[in-house]
Amino acid sequence: MILPNKYIALSESFIGLSALILEVLYNKALTIDNLWNGFNKKQVEKGKLREGPTFQKFVYVLEFMYMSEMISYNEKGEIKIENKKYKTKKSPE
Questions:
Q1: Helix/strand/coil (H, E, C) string of 23-70?
Q2: Which of 36, 50, 67, 74 sits most deeply, having the most CB atoms within 10 A of its CB?
Q3: How many domains does the chain have?
Q4: What is the pLDDT of residues 22-44, one digit of tens each?
């Protein structure tokens, strides 16, 4: 379930779903309800996924992302991106 293989598509794996969730979370802090609704609007309704994951699988992916330190929770209980390495830095030459 975590990694894709010949039986599990990338969009059904935890890694693939994590990337799609990060697209929705980019520079925002959202409650789980808002994240779930935003995920369905952005990914499922616009055709990136044939069918969305169940809410239970969505929560499992969030747990995986938290354990992998991709996301964190603030004091209001909102989910935000923890790893800010998306911005490119100039490499020392």
A1: HHHCCCCECHHHHHHHHHHHHHCCCCCCCCCCHHHHHHHHHHHHHCCC
A2: 36
A3: 1
A4: 999 988 899 999 999 999 998 88
